[in-house]
């Protein structure tokens, strides 16, 4: 009996440790990329920094709902999806401002910070890989991390494009691509959350009828 109880709570405890690690990685990288994005006038870095902040918030919510049951996990996933969608809209707004001002970012700073962020998020993705199938909570966290790696690679491509062309458009286009990625992932997370919420409500209804 004790072994069964230990096994039941083993996954949530491992999830807590893992989510705490990735939360701090994202929080630190948010500050680094925000400062670098402002200094280099890079839309891509700023978008990625906002993504880092969003992920830190997401992992914080994930820590709160770990082990609290499917209903709480579904609510948290709905909130995560909303945050991701809001960040996508924020990136679009920043792109408009960038076009209006006509600022060209610094490719050297973009490359340096982009490489650092890519390494950090690559480590997070590896950490979360084996936990992605645990439940909807960990799956949405893994999706966020996967998006981070894709966004980091895009930032590096944008930096190369800016360096080659001397134009801000590679940076702007990457910002738009990141916004699209946010939107797609938000829809996926919201669908998963609604599906799990429906299953939870159906289970409650069956329990009341029994």
Can you tag this structure with a few keywords?
mainly alpha, single chain, 6 helices
Could you give a quick summary of the protein structure above?
With 210 residues, the protein is mostly helical. It has helices spanning 2-40, 43-65, 70-101, 107-129, 136-165, 169-209. Helix 1 runs antiparallel to helix 2, helix 1 packs antiparallel against helix 4 and helix 4 packs antiparallel against helix 5.
- Radius of gyration based on Cα positions: 19 Å
Helices and strands, in order, run as: HHHHHH
Strand content: under 5%
Share of residues in helices: over 70%
Major pleated sheet = none
**Shape, please?**
elongated
End-to-end Cα distance, whole Å, is 27 Å
What is the residue-mean pLDDT, rounded to a whole number?
77
Q: How many E strands?
A: 0
Spans where pLDDT lies below 50 across 5 or more residues: 1-11
Structural class given helices, strands, pairing? Answer: mainly alpha
Q: What does the model show?
A:
By secondary structure, this protein is mostly helical. It has one domain. The protein is about 90% helix and about 0% strand. The chain contains six helices and no strands. Helix 3 (about 70-100) packs antiparallel against helix 6 (about 170-210). The longest helix is centred in the last third of the chain and has 41 residues, at about 170-210. The protein is elongated, with a radius of gyration of 19 Å. The model is unreliable at about 1-10 (pLDDT under 50).
């Amino acid at each position: 009996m004790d072994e069964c109880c230990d096994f039941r709570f083993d996954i949530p405890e491992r999830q807590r440790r893992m989510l705490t690690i990735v939360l701090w990685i994202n929080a630190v990288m948010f500050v680094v990329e925000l400062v670098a994005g402002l200094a280099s006038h890079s839309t891509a870095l700023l978008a990625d920094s906002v993504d880092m902040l969003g992920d830190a918030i997401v992992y914080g919510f994930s820590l709160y709902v770990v082990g609290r049951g499917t209903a709480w996990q579904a609510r948290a996933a709905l909130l995560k999806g909303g945050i991701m969608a809001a960040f996508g809209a924020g990136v679009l707004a920043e792109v408009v401002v960038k076009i209006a001002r006509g600022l060209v970012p610094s490719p050297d700073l973009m490359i340096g910070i982009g490489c650092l962020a890519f390494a950090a998020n690559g480590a997070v993705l590896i950490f979360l890989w084996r936990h992605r199938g645990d439940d909807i909570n960990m799956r949405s966290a893994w999706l966020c991390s996967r998006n981070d790696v894709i966004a980091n690679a895009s930032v590096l491509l944008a930096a190369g494009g800016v360096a080659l062309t001397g134009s801000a458009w590679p940076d702007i286009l990457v910002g738009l691509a990141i916004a699209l990625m946010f939107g797609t992932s938000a829809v996926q997370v919201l669908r998963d959350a609604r599906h799990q919420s429906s299953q939870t409500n159906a289970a409650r209804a069956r329990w009341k009828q029994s």
